[in-house]
Amino acid sequence: MQPDTTTGTPLLQRWVVWWPQALQRLAAKLAGLACFMADSRACRSAVVPLVRDALGVSSWRAHVIAAQACINSFEYAIDSATILAGNPRTVERINQSKNRVEGLANLEAAAARGKGVFVTASMFSCFYYAMMCRWPAFSNGTETPRFHIVIPRRDKLLLSICERVAQFGERCHDFIPMDSPRAGLDVLNAIRSGGVVVCMIDNIPANAAVVPVDFFGRPACMPAGYLMIAAKYGVPIVNCTTTCRGGVFETRFEEPISADASPADADALPWLAERVHASLERCVRANPGGWHSWDSLAVKWGVGQSLQTSGDTT
After folding, report:
1. Secondary structure of 56-116 in the HEC alphabet?
2. DSSP state of 289
3. Which of 149, 158, 140 has the alpha carbon at shortest distance from 118?
4. CA distance 108 to 136
5. Could you report the per-residue pLDDT of 225-234, keeping only the tens digit for each?
6. How many other β-carbons are positioned within 10 Å of the β-carbon of residue 289?
7. Which residue stretches, if any, does this entry annotate as coiled coil (predicted)?
8. Which of 98, 112, 167, 256 has the maximum number of C-beta atoms within 10 A of its C-beta?
């Protein structure tokens, strides 16, 4: 459903990224609606049934939400290209005046436990703005922990965007490619050093171990790797979303979820998985048109159904 930002970036560099932000938003709306009406990459035929079944809404309402999600994906592409190749003064102005953070106390409370933090990020809007958002200082006077972002692989375009993000932001980011043989060890070392490890939780990597969960009332799944570490070492998990409303980017950290709070007779791993996905589901229900990972729901439901049928747990 999401447009290919890799092939679209040169055109955006030459034209759209230099337009005023209001004009960019209008262009994204028109392009998104055109893409939706043409059903490009099944953004209508595949997503509408998923929205209808997940939210229990009418077909008309599902079409509206799916169209909003398609528009949002074009806005995401423009935002990414703006950061990569747009006017630096425009990006700095957006970062200073239209980039907000909410719930920082939740991240602070999780970091204060001294066990590191897993931030589970879902793609609602431009995550790169969240990466460079200027955060208020922690109230206890401690420095913001170092961030380590788990990425599928070392993609040249992604790294170029992140390099630009570092120029505008105030935090350094390390990257942990999932295709590296050291990925698991690097994640564990980052956690042990008290760092924040950011994991994208919308998609299920190929051949990844998974944990069964319920998602929108159906059997689903989520990646097991970080959950296993969180369950074993009591590492708190904080859900994170970035939404764009009225041209303002708001990054929000939800309340920490920790295996230490699980009931004594409960298995910590599935208990954590259910609560992380429940937090994500609440965020999606609050802003369904802003979530442009609806296509991942089909995969999660499909794997979840297979796990339920076979009786496997990972």
Report:
1. CCCHHHHHHHHHHHHHHHHHHHHHHHHHHHCCHHHHHHHHHHCEEEECHHHHHHHHCCCCC
2. G
3. 149
4. 11
5. 899 999 999 9
6. 18
7. none
8. 256
